[in-house]
Amino acid sequence: MSQDAVELTRGLLTEDAALRHGFLDVLGESTASPAPTVAQRAMNSPLVATVYERLWRPAAFYVASGVTTGAEQRRAASALRLCTAGLLLDVACGPGNFTASLAEQLPGGGLAVGFDISEPMLTRAVLDNHTPRTAYVRGDARALPFADATFDAVCCFGALYLMPEPFRVAREMLRVLKPGGRVAVLTSYVPDLPPIRHAMTAGARLIGLTMFDRHSFVDLFASAGLVDIEQQTQRALQFVAAAKPGRGA
């Protein structure tokens, strides 16, 4: 991770941050989160952080959606219109596999900021996915340490269903998005059919996952005044993208 990217990111923060293991940390020793579920503990495991990018995520998400990682990244870059974005925030970035890939799609001088609460994941991101156009921050996504309307694009791929307050996180993502900016999320999806919905929801609850229906994020984005809302559902996952009205929308 380049020093220029670190200092530019530090300038975006609304809280003091220490540089630890190559990432900026606004939390220090405190996680400021409830006792983790089984799924959350996995995301904080150094072993999972090591295998997540190359093994766990590609296999699990292909089974869940039938979409390859490469196709996911291309869809994300297109939906977020990264070719015209200067600043990207990747919430719950994990080991930075999407952060670094999406950073390559930004125009010259662009910066992708990966944000996560897991120290092992961010340590892995710095080791495996640092580029001159990426920087990583540790913090709590329920209170993003950035001013309103900071980023041209904001995304969260494969993590909202792990979080204790996913809609609060989504609203924070919209708060830091500039007018005219784009937001995209990839999260869980459960069909409307009652038997399937009950079975999938019960199974997910056992390991601490939340299953969202087709209306959850579409309605949230619409109620926040977003436009150009698009949704794709594939098996157990959904991709939802939208634009914040304003200049360039």
UniProtKB/TrEMBL annotation:
InterPro entries: Methyltransf_11, SAM-dependent_MTases_sf. GO terms for biological process: methylation. Keywords: Methyltransferase, Transferase. Residues 89-184 form the Methyltransferase type domain. This is SAM-dependent methyltransferase. GO terms for molecular function: S-adenosylmethionine-dependent methyltransferase activity. It comes from the Bacteria.
